[in-house]
Each structure stands twice: as structure tokens, then as C-alpha cells.
Write a structure and sequence with these properties.
The chain is an alpha+beta fold and 154 residues long. The chain has one domain: Nucleoside diphosphate kinase-like domain (Alpha-Beta Plaits, 2-Layer Sandwich). A four-stranded antiparallel beta sheet has the order 2-3-1-4, sandwiched between helices. Helix content is 36%, strand content 19%. The structure holds adenosine-5'-diphosphate and magnesium ion. Adenosine-5'-diphosphate (ADP) binds next to loops.
Length: 154
């Protein structure tokens, strides 16, 4: 089933200079990039984005971490992308994330865990609306973006 997801590269991903490595993992799957921007995070948007976690013990520290630097917000589309992208990202606690997952490779702990990925299509639609205006998404282009990569990667 074709789905969309909202993937955020968190401030630690920017600081570690692994934006490219993260995007490559999604491109490698043949997922289609519908939108992308680097933004200084706005506290109000962030509180809305993570409203389900408000009141949890980790919430205040987590929000401060998310506000510590810019993020890269992206929207991707693909077959079963919710499940597949969460497999690429790995378990919440980077120390317990599956070998080879992004959080295993570049994450630090259960707060500084590099990447956000939507946990359902309903969450994805809500999160995409918070991060992007409709006009910022490239929904109807004439390129066949499902074709495999044409250029050789050294
Ligand atoms: P996920 O991002 O894997 O879907 P959650 O939705 O449960 O995880 O939590 C949202 C984010 O809050 C996590 O990605 C992580 O950055 C942070 N977080 C979750 N649990 C903890 C915790 N126990 N301590 C600190 N930060 C946490
Ligand atoms: Mg979550």
C-alpha cells in the first residue's frame, strides 16, 4: 500500500553531518521525496508535533534537545513506507537499535536518536500539515521517480 511519512532529521543528525547518509538510505529504497527543507524549529510547532508526549517524564528535556538546533523536515512516499522507514530508522533507544539501522549507526541514546519517522498514516498526514504548506510539496511532477538510480555511485 502506498503511504506517506514525515521524516525529521533531528539537531544531532545535522551536528554529526550525516544528512546525506540519512537521505541516501531512503533514496536507496526507491522512496519518492515529496518535500524537504532545513528550518530552525519553532517551539509552538514542535509542541504541536509532539503533543502526544506532553506530560511524559522525558518531555521537557526532549523538547530542549529538539530546540537546540535546526532540523531537516522531509516528506516521502512509497509502498509500506511507514513500516519500512521505521525499520531503516531503528528502535527509539539508539543503544538498542537494530544493527545497521540509522539510530544504531549514528544515534546516541533514547533522546538523541537522530531521526523521527511517522508511526502511522494518520500521524503522517497530521505531521506533514504541521511542517509543510501544501505549496511546499512536489506532488505532481512528470519525472518517473520510481526508476532505479541511473548514475554510478563511487
Ligand atoms: P519514536 O521516535 O521511536 O517513535 P517516541 O514516539 O516514543 O519514539 O518518542 C518520541 C521521541 O522522544 C523519541 O524519538 C526520542 O527522541 C524521545 N524519547 C522517547 N522516549 C524517551 C526517553 N525515555 N527518554 C528521553 N527521550 C525519549
Ligand atoms: Mg513516535
Amino acid at each position: 500500500m502506498k503511504q506517506r511519512t514525515c521524516v525529521l532529521i533531528k539537531p544531532d543528525g545535522i551536528e554529526k553531518k550525516v544528512i546525506g547518509q540519512i537521505l541516501t538510505r531512503f533514496e536507496d529504497q526507491g522512496f519518492q521525496l515529496l518535500g524537504m527543507k532545513m528550518v530552525p524549529v519553532n517551539q509552538e510547532k514542535l509542541e504541536n508535533f509532539y503533543s502526544e508526549h506532553k506530560g511524559k517524564t522525558f518531555y521537557d528535556h526532549f523538547l530542549n534537545f529538539m530546540l537546540s538546533g535546526p532540523i531537516v523536515a522531509t516528506v516521502w512516499e512509497g509502498e509500506d513506507i511507514i513500516l519500512r522507514s521505521r525499520q531503516i530508522i531503528g528502535a527509539t533507544n539508539s543503544q538498542e537499535a537494530e544493527i545497521g539501522s540509522l539510530r544504531n549507526l549514528y544515534g546516541t541514546d533514547n533522546r538523541k536518536n537522530l531521526v523521527h519517522g511517522s508511526d502511522s498514516s494518520i500521524s503522517a498526514e497530521r505531521e506533514i500539515k504541521i511542517m509543510f504548506k501544501e505549496s511546499e510539496l512536489c506532488l505532481n511532477n512528470s519525472l518517473d521517480l520510481n526508476e532505479p538510480r541511473q548514475t554510478k555511485v563511487p
